[in-house]
Amino acid sequence: MYQSKWRIFTNHTILVLGSLFMILPVWIAFASSTHTREYIFQNGLQFLPGGEFFTNYGAILFDAEATKGRVTALEMLFNSMVLGLGFAIGKVIISMMAAYAIVYFRFKLAVPLFWIIFSTLLLPLEVRIVPSYEVVANLGLLNTYTGLILPLIASATGTFFFRQFYRSVPDELLEAARLDGAGPIRFFIDILVPLSVTMIAAIFIIMFVVGWNQYLWPLLMTTDDQLYTIVIGIKQVYNSLYEGGQIPQFPKAFALTIMASVPPVLVVVIFQRMFVKGLVETEK
Amino acid sequence: MKRVQFEHSAVPYLFIAPQILIISIFFLWPAAQALYQSFLLEDAFGMSSQFVWFRNFEDVLTSSSWTRSAIFTVVFSVLVSVLSIAISLFLAVRADEVIRGAKSYKTLLMWGYAIAPPVAGLLGIMMFNPLMGDLYKAFNSFGFEFNHIENANDAAFIVILIAVWKQVSVNFIFFLSGLQGIPKSVQEAATLDCKSPERRFWTITFPLLAPTTFFLLVINLTYAFFETFGIIDVSTKGAPGGSTATLVYKVYVDGFLGADMGGSAAQSVLLMIMVSVLTVFQFRFIERKVHY
Amino acid sequence: MATVTLNQAQKTYPNGFKAIHGIDLKIEHGEFTVLVGPSGCGKSTLLRMIAGLEGISDGEIIIDDKVVNTVAPADRDIAMVFQNYALYPHMNNYDNMAYGLKNRGYSKAEIDAKVREAARILQLEDHLERKPRQLSGGQRQRVAMGRAIVRQPKVFLFDEPLSNLDAKLRVDMRLEIKNLQQRLGITSVYVTHDQVEAMTLADRLIVMNGGVAEQIGTPIDIYEKPASQFVAGFIGSPAMNFLKGKVSDDKKHVTVGDGVMLDLDHDVEAGRDVTVGIRPEHLELLKDGEGRINAGVRMVESLGAETLAYLDFGANADNVTLRLQGTHTFGKGEKLSLSVPASKIHLFDIESGQRI
């Protein structure tokens, strides 16, 4: 389509500026994470990387001391991975099953159960945080992976997503399957699930990122630092930045932010199409 | 509804059970607790509690700190939504037009969602760090005396900036998708009818994007209300003096750090009412958005 | 009213694909020119280049003595009717037609007069307050034309405007467009893949293939003297029959099939291998044995006003289509005897496909 040369020029300029706006903070964090803390303290945040990449990153990955606790960044990354994967897997399985029941079956409690699930959209975790904590504590699930993951799965977003998708699947498929002698469980496993593979992937991607980035809930219910996720590690480092009268550990703090961000960002960028699909569908 | 459905007794219950179970234990029960606790007043040691009807609500609604927090939350949410939508729309329109490098720009601009709120908060507060932050230095070099520790507006500025930064990606993705939904031939016809790209945008593109914009407004307001907890907790922590605490943050501070169960629960219930209104609004009015 | 001239217009895409190879064209004032060809031949691309919606890689586009290569589409004084109407969905039909005028600074009164006049011509007066989605396909296409008419541009461009309409509507609208254009006298360029539309609408026809203009001429010229095998096979339905042939030593006959000799009306190089083209409607059915071409009936289609017979000819059972007026019944395998006048035989070079 027609575009004047000026328009093309301004378009690119604006997009480059926008990209810089997004990228610079992260880049500066990375560059600053590769210097010594004295250097940062004296010269401020850096645009260019220094030579301390391996020292700094190695320190926080393998030396618990560097992360102000008894846990290394490596262990925290592991915890984040467990949370991310567990959350995504749990979400996918539960919502697929619940959506299947709602869409494909006519049963007595269908309507009230549907509204119960819908109601979870009305009260995000942030708002019922205190009583949720009490429930988990009473169940003895504090400081466990189960307690970390299960309460987060309780919301309806995934279910609505699959519900919408199932409704778009042609009825003829079910009719043909029935003629072929498939019962409801067979139909689900042999036909519906394979059909949903792209949808499952999209939801999985986005839920992994959501799980990885969880903050409030892990903050509250993991007091045992063996269970800290990398995102919680950020908070710890933030709290201890200025302690002890020493030069603040800015580079290591930045290194932690980079490590907390790289996996989800990579996932989102590499699986861009699936991520966008998942995002667009779940927000509706 | 599906034309064809199974008539089976056990299977649907089996399938829906896990979600219902989890919801019952980890949602309904805590939600009911929150509701119940909002009517209680506990003593200082958490030993006994007293049913006080709506007194907690009264206290909360008349407390100046809650009112201030409410005002801040509203202002914050509106500003974050409007700014984030404006910036991302601006970028999306250009990204939709460029031919060279379209994919690259899209990749460079869409990943913000993957950054955790506390990480964004940390990045932001570092940029404004008095000792070494670039933005801090930049502002001061313009003669601006930036002091976010003491000045409530400066602190608010930081939090808003961080929240906008993070949300631009999400809005960008939706706007790009909305723009691609406008038929190319309609845009071409507009090119023949109208020379100025700006004018074309306001008379053709923007009206056709109205549904997307309304939708994003609701999404953004919800985001600003709830998902900015992490940003605040790792940047200003609500300082100075609770002036950058959103209502959600306040629930946390009062309930968890302050051990005011009743008051915090009452705040939760109030928040729940607000969300319900927003959600109902979204489903009712946005679903009936203008269809061409 | 304007002239449109193309001087060696070319278009190459960034990925290297050459869509248009050097086209020269001169369209006179008020002429209705049709670009016709199969999918991918470049006809729409060429139209869009005239509009300015596609850039030109080399050569010139001149509207009324002004080179418009770098002129913005909105400034070229052209109007376009799109295949899928491209009406602005959020505006009512009145505003759709008024939009272009509004942007050009006409007064409200002028706009109102022009829009109402166009609505009158196109019988849209009752639909002005409605939105496009409330209209049928044919009505929407009229609104799209109205949007073009109100501008009273120098050139009308049509990009397959009737392709999305059903068959009956297409025929009606075809006539309307022709009438309209003659009435308004505006130079028009029309793109279609339908050769019937092309033949009926065009003052002049451009047959395109693979980014090249294979022939430019009046519809009748192109029908009677196709410049290449491609044009011959594209224009005319059912398509022309093609047979392999060899020119005889006396230069006055050509042999096809199993030694069937046909008379030529002019001399051709002796012994040359050629492709012989005969239109189905030019084969004459004679009584048994009287014609030189004898072929067996494979299948018959009776259309009422005419009959199409598909025949097997020669040792290789080459396909020959016969078109006769009226209804004829033939048995399967029945042998028919045909002849063809020398003036209706077309010869094409066996390699280049060019007319001999």
UniProtKB/TrEMBL annotation, chain A:
GO cellular component, one term: plasma membrane
Gene3D superfamilies for this protein: MetI-like (1.10.3720.10)
InterPro entries linked: MetI-like (IPR000515), MetI-like_sf (IPR035906)
Entry's transmembrane regions: 12-30, 81-102, 109-125, 145-166, 187-212, 253-271
Annotated membrane topology: Multi-pass membrane protein
Subunit structure: The complex is composed of two ATP-binding proteins (UgpC), two transmembrane proteins (UgpA and UgpE) and a solute-binding protein (UgpB).
Cross-referenced NCBIfam families: PRK10973.1 (NF008210)
This protein's name: sn-glycerol-3-phosphate transport system permease protein UgpE
